[in-house]
Specification:
Structural class: alpha+beta
Radius of gyration: 25 Å
Oligomer: single chain
Number of helices: 10
Length: 425
């Protein structure tokens, strides 16, 4: 049996939210894997229906693009969008002897093979444990203590923790005998070694904190007032052995590929949210991380994401009864009993204010807003993909600092505790 935590699979005592979450796992996993298989075929043939650039880089071997396509899933045509991004990660910095008689080629080869083994260990065992980090904050040690009521007026602010990257936490698992169990205690953050999945788990359910994921809507441009919609930081994912990449010498020019992916789960209660699209609100979606080690020791990261295109962006209720229930907080039985007779009254439907704005702007301008100003639903979709690209770019770039801190990822006894536990001190 491989090492690592194995929690008991006894009575879980699930609450309603957890039961709703677990009820969605099998369907979301199946759909996510089918979407990944479809993407793999399209990507191998470069058969994207519409492909467009997402970013520009200078003096860096990075590339990224977004795409729109129609995927056929279970015999049904599904409009999808996504992005693929590739970026240089690292290379060995080992000296090669130039003395006569030294086997320079052999030294290069050994260095590249060592790099391959290090990347495999880091990506498949530790990457998900250390993928979040704290961003620096300015500190003034002599700043006076400011009362909370006056802080908006103060020129000095108390330090506050700002996080970046993704914070993964494993919640539930299904073992190979079909039993469902719960990860508990500190084991929640010590994400399992992904190489152990085929031997122990059919799937695991994770929760991820996505830091600083806001979506900006600027009807009049960035120089005028605009709205920022903070997307929920918590998303739920399901990871199975079919998403794990652990391949050596797949093709000429490389030594191995290592990575993982997951399907997105619908967040419980998402149907009541004002936001109708995004993490936790996809009909079907997957994310994939892959690291390629080339024969020279260079490491290249490649990420892919695909999801259904949105039918709505916002889902605002016009129902005053719904507003009253929200205001009551669902805690006052008397308030709910008072409002219950109104449940039989015809109620206003939910509306998408973003869609109304796009339609209205183009109607009033004869389509000029869309043609010249980019006021279209398609532009919003591209903006979403750009934000998604930047989030994952920052996750991989941020992980590089942690990757380089450790001299030897295979020397487990020498690793700091936070690497093994996934919990920073």
């Amino acid at each position: 049996m491989a090492d690592g935590p194995r929690p008991p699979a006894d009575d879980l005592r699930l609450d309603a939210v957890e039961r709703q979450l677990l009820d969605s796992v099998e369907e979301s996993l199946s759909q996510g894997l089918k979407l990944q298989d479809w993407w793999s075929e399209v990507d191998d043939d470069d058969a994207y229906a519409e492909r467009f650039a997402l970013s520009t880089t200078f003096s860096r071997p990075d590339s990224s693009f977004g795409f729109f396509c129609v995927a056929r899933i279970n015999g049904v045509d599904l409009p999808v969008m996504g992005n693929v991004q590739e970026q240089f990660y690292d290379r060995p910095k080992t000296p090669v002897s130039r003395r006569p008689g030294d086997d320079t080629a052999s030294l290069h080869e050994l260095s590249a093979l060592w790099m391959r083994d290090q990347v495999r260990e880091f990506v498949l065992r530790y990457f998900m444990r250390v993928s979040d980090f704290s961003l620096p904050e300015a500190v003034d040690e002599n700043a006076p203590e400011v009362p909370p009521a006056l802080r908006p007026l103060a020129w000095t602010q108390a330090p506050r923790k700002r996080s970046g990257g993704f914070g993964y936490e494993q919640l539930f698992y299904k073992d190979l005998d079909g039993r469902i169990g719960r990860f508990s205690g500190a084991d929640r953050f010590a994400i399992v070694d992904l190489r152990d999945l085929p031997e122990r788990y059919a799937w695991i359910v994770l929760r991820v904190e996505i830091f600083d994921f806001n979506f900006q809507v600027a009807p009049f441009g960035d120089s005028y007032p605009y709205a920022v919609m903070p997307y929920p930081e918590t998303s739920y994912l399901v990871l199975s052995p079919d998403f794990v990449v652990d391949i050596e010498s797949r093709e000429p020019g490389e030594l191995g590929r290592y990575g993982f992916g997951y399907a997105f789960l619908p967040s419980p209660g998402a149907e009541e949210s004002v936001l109708a699209y995004g993490p936790g609100r996809f009909d079907v979606a997957f994310q994939r991380f892959e690291f390629q080690v080339r024969t020279g020791g260079e490491v290249i990261s490649r990420m892919a994401f695909a999801a259904n295109r949105p039918k709505q962006v916002m889902n605002l209720s016009l129902d005053p009864v719904h507003w009253a229930r929200q205001a009551a907080g669902f805690v006052a039985d008397g308030a709910n009993r008072f409002l219950s007779p109104f449940d039989r009254v015809p109620r206003p439907r939910r509306v998408d204010l973003v869609d109304l704005y796009v339609r209205g702007a183009n109607l009033m301008t004869g389509g000029l807003a869309g043609r010249r100003l980019g006021v279209t639903k398609k532009q919003l979709e591209k903006d979403f993909l750009q934000k998604h690209f930047l989030q994952h770019y920052n996750v991989v770039t941020g992980s590089l600092i942690t990757w380089r801190q450790i001299a030897d990822w295979l020397e487990r006894d020498a690793l700091p505790p936070w690497v093994e536990t996934g919990i920073s001190s």
